[in-house]
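STRUCTURE:
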């Protein structure tokens, strides 16, 4: 099952794009969408407005497609769930793109910069070579602590 979540906000463009991918057969597995306050109501996938206890769905999903909200993305990272994130550019100052760019550079998520590229982003997130999020996140945190504790000192590299 694929879970799509937009938090409590509206991101009708993302919901409509996933619904279209289900309708045309690009996505062939069940999809459950949390559509927030958006105007678009999906016709080809199960959906609900908001569930404060979305945790069970996070665990059931083989893949999560989400907006780039800090709460959602940090929860998915904490759980080690594979996800594709799309910035909701309708929000003030497009801050989600900056955060997703940094997360993507570190290999923590697949950042889908355009909804036209969503099928490719989904395929990338499912690829067997997609790095283990927990291992990459743990290594990044260890590197951050090393850099703070030993400025200018080179660290030993370890394979992931």
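SEQUENCE:
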């Amino acid at each position: 099952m694929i879970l799509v979540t937009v938090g409590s906000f509206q991101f009708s463009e993302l919901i409509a794009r996933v619904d279209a991918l289900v309708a045309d057969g690009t996505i062939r597995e069940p999809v459950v969408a949390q559509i927030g306050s958006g105007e678009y109501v999906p016709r080809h996938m199960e959906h609900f407005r908001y569930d404060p206890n979305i945790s069970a769905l996070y665990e059931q999903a083989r893949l999560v497609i989400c907006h780039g909200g800090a709460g959602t993305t940090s929860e998915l990272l904490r759980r080690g769930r594979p996800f594709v994130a799309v910035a909701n550019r309708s929000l003030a100052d497009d801050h989600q793109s900056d955060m997703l760019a940094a997360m993507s550079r570190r290999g923590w998520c697949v950042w889908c910069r355009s909804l036209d590229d969503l099928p490719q982003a989904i395929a990338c997130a499912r690829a067997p070579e997609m790095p283990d999020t927990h291992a990459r996140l743990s290594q990044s945190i260890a590197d951050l602590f090393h850099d703070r504790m030993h400025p200018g000192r080179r660290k030993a590299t370890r394979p992931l």
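REMARK: Residues 79 and 156 are 27 Å apart (CA to CA).
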